[in-house]
């Protein structure tokens, strides 16, 4: 199976010099158009691969909209640089509105990917593909559309359901459908993808493409997130995953080692390559997670300013998060590190040492910053670029989601082995009984900084309570936080529709409270 680092190259249009009207009215044979492109298996392979690119935007925006929206992390405040306040900081403070950055990019990027998928689905029947090839393409396309709509409904609630290729101006505008209808569409698409037959992962490393395991995981999340929960159906999907070929790696730290991309623990992950070209196949996430640093070549192995643009100091683990790990939890040092050094009067930090967090004691006269270590694998070859994949679904997450599911059905004893399997790998003692709080705590630490915490809090009904308490703690710690921050209400469980989208789509009504 071809890897995701396949790119679509359109042929150049030949210069035309003939004065023949009939010739001028013909499309050159070297020109790729929608009429000539969607014909062969190779065409659909390229189009399908291109439909995965929107996942990269979800990973990047997620560190601000999902992880930094939670009690796991905050950000470093730089008094000399207040530019990021409107674009980014407001997301963590629950002061965001329809103009705040990251949200518009994510919304636009997801719908752009949905448009690609809709074109594939709409052009498939008239193509040259065999019936079996059509089934394969359709299953993968439906999985992707379901994944993208699940991302939308989790972050904006009801959204416009665009299910056909847009060919006219009128078709480009639609009112938002109720969230219940969006969830229903996600289930319809992913269920059809499953019935058509996605591949079951059998060899590792995997290709990074959609699999039966990824589809079952998506459907289970949807069953357990929709307004009317279907725990029985989700339980079956999750138990099916345990009968596939997945398993935990021996070491938690090894899960995030780039050498182990698409391993047996990976159910679905977003693909990146550390590349020096401008093909957009790399990520810059590690550079955003380390502190702003005057000598980041010390941290990263190559010089690159992260004071502006691709700036650092984001998604900083909180002291509470660090203290919440049980003694001896191997996931702590694998997930978080400490950069220690000196900061001058201009807030220029010079890093002198990277230390483990579990036994860290601050050095007198020096400053330190916590940062996420999970995606930190220097030295890097290219400035501002990394090739770490980003996890979406992991087998450990499937075990814990199954435990959550069983506890919700009051079958706590059945959930216990799944929780303990994860805890054993983390170096922790097995529990003798398990509660919903135990499962949530385990999920928080196992999936830390993987963009799950915010949506986990919403799914389990703890978002308002947890983030209101977190806000009080942050306000007491940082006097510069406005009194109006952290007003976490039901309306704030979804984001505002971007202003630009509402200016374009006159049928799109803003979410309440914005």
From TrEMBL:
Claim: Chaperone is one of the keywords in the record: no
SUPFAM superfamilies hit by this protein: TPR-like
One Pfam short name: SusD-like_3
Stretches assigned to coiled coil: none
Subcellular location as annotated: Cell outer membrane
Highest taxon of source: Bacteria
Stated family: Belongs to the SusD family.
Full protein name: RagB/SusD family nutrient uptake outer membrane protein
Signal sequence residues: 1-20
UniProt keywords, alphabetically: Cell outer membrane, Membrane, Signal
Main location: membrane
Boundaries of every RagB/SusD domain copy: 264-514
Taxonomic source organism: Parabacteroides faecis
UniProt cross-references to Gene3D superfamilies, sorted A to Z: 1.25.40.390
Domain SusD-like N-terminal: 76-202
């Amino acid at each position: 199976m071809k890897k995701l680092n396949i790119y679509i190259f359109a042929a150049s249009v030949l210069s035309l010099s003939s004065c023949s009207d009939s010739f001028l009215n013909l499309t050159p044979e070297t020109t790729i158009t929608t009429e000539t492109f969607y014909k062969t298996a190779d065409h659909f392979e390229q189009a399908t691969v291109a439909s995965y690119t929107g996942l990269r935007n979800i990973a990047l925006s997620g560190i601000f909209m999902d992880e930094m929206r939670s009690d796991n992390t905050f950000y470093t405040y730089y008094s000399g640089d207040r530019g990021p306040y409107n674009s980014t900081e407001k997301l963590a403070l629950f002061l965001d509105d329809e103009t705040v950055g990251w949200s518009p990019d994510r919304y636009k990027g997801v719908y752009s990917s949905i448009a690609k998928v809709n074109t594939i689905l709409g052009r498939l029947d008239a193509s040259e593909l065999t019936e079996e090839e059509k089934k394969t393409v359709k299953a993968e396309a439906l999985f992707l559309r379901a994944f993208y709509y699940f991302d939308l409904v989790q972050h904006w609630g009801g959204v416009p359901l665009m299910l056909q290729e847009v060919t006219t101006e009128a078709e480009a505008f639609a009112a938002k459908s109720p969230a219940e209808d969006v969830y229903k569409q996600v289930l319809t698409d992913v269920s059809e993808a499953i019935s058509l037959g996605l591949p079951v992962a059998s060899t590792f490393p995997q290709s990074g493409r959609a699999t039966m395991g990824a589809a079952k995981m998506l459907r289970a999340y949807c069953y357990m997130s929709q307004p009317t929960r279907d725990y029985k159906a989700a339980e079956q999907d999750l138990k099916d995953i345990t009968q596939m070929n997945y398993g935990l790696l021996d070491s938690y730290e090894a899960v995030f080692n780039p050498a182990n991309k698409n391993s047996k623990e990976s159910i679905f992950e977003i693909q990146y390559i550390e590349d020096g070209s401008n093909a957009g196949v790399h990520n810059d996430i590690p550079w955003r997670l380390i502190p702003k640093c005057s000598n980041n070549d010390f941290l990263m192995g190559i010089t690159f300013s992260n004071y502006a643009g691709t700036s650092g100091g984001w998604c900083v683990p909180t002291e509470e998060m660090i203290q919440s790990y049980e003694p001896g939890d191997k996931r702590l040092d694998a997930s978080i590190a400490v950069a220690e050094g000196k900061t001058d009067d201009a807030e220029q930090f010079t890093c002198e040492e990277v230390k483990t967090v579990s036994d860290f004691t601050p050095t007198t006269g020096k400053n330190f910053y916590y940062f996420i270590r999970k995606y930190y694998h220097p030295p890097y070859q290219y400035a501002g670029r990394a090739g770490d994949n980003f996890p979406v679904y992991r087998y450990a997450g499937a075990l814990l989601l199954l435990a959550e599911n069983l506890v919700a059905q009051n079958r706590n004893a059945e959930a216990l082995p799944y929780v303990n399997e994860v805890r054993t790998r983390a170096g922790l003692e097995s529990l003798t009984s398990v509660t919903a709080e135990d499962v949530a705590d385990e999920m928080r630490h196992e999936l830390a900084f993987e963009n799950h915490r915010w949506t986990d809090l919403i799914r389990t009904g703890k978002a308002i309570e947890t983030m209101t308490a977190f806000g009080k703690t942050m306000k007491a710690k940082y006097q510069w936080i406005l009194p109006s921050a952290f007003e976490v209400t039901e309306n704030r469980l979804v984001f505002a529709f971007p202003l630009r989208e509402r200016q374009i789509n006159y049928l799109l009504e803003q979410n309440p409270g914005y």
